[in-house]
Write a structure and sequence with these properties.
The chain has 6 helices and 9 strands; from the N terminus they run H-E-H-E-H-E-E-H-E-H-E-E-E-H-E. By secondary structure, the chain is α/β, with parallel strands linked by helices. The chain has 2 domains: 118 residues, Rossmann fold (3-Layer(aba) Sandwich); 35 residues, no CATH class. The strands form 2 sheets. The chain has a 7-stranded mixed beta sheet, sandwiched between helices. The protein has a two-stranded antiparallel ribbon with strand order 7-8. The chain is globular.
Length: 195
């Protein structure tokens, strides 16, 4: 088992200080996994930052069965992860970096319209920074495409008790990312209220 994480707070700081062979307790898996697209639909996977790690298994599972386009984004070439791993899957792969050090210069969502044109019956899967997922959801909605977002909210307890991962819904109320997600139909999310 491999754990990919970014040091952002106390818990990940402690994890970064763990020594080889040291035992670490974990709880998981939590929530719901990505569902496959219906028969006849392709997949367009959009991921940025550490969200890239969350979509690799989805791409690997779907690649032998359906057309898969993968769009990866990062700030720089050095921050881009998984490029070689995705290349080995034989998927249509495009990369965007903010500084242009790898692939296209700009945001990964800048590649989405063209990818949708290549996959006319494509379902969009997205994971990464909230602003990126929100933009992908807007593009998907404008193009009449279903979009599944894998939210990266902080999950303190993982069981729906602490309410720390509450996600605002467009129709009102909240869903808990640890229990009800992390996969959501992107049209359900109140993106303007999500921090």
């Amino acid at each position: 088992m491999e754990i990919l994480f970014k040091v952002t707070g106390r818990g990940t700081a402690l994890l970064s200080e763990a020594q080889s062979g040291e035992r670490v307790r974990l709880v998981g898996p939590l929530g719901r996994a990505f569902s496959d697209p219906p028969p006849g639909e392709n997949a367009v996977i959009v991921a940025g930052g550490t969200g890239i790690a969350s979509v690799y298994e989805l791409a690997a599972r779907l690649a032998p069965r359906t057309g898969v386009s993968v769009l990866l984004g990062a700030r720089t070439r050095d921050a881009l992860m998984g490029h070689e791993d995705f290349s080995k899957l034989g998927v249509r792969l495009q990369v965007a970096t903010d500084d242009g050090s790898e692939g296209t210069t700009g945001l990964v969502t800048d590649l989405l319209d063209a990818a949708i044109d290549v996959s006319p019956k494509g379902r969009i899967y997205v994971c990464g920074p909230t602003a990126m997922m929100r933009r992908a959801a807007e593009i998907a909605g404008a193009r009449g495409r279903p979009c599944v977002a894998s939210l990266e909210n902080t999950m303190a307890c993982g069981f729906g008790v602490c309410l720390g991962c509450a996600t605002p819904l467009r129709e009102g109320g909240f869903a808990l990312t640890c229990r009800d997600g992390p996969m959501f139909d992107a049209t359900q999310i109140a993106w303007d209220k999500l921090a």
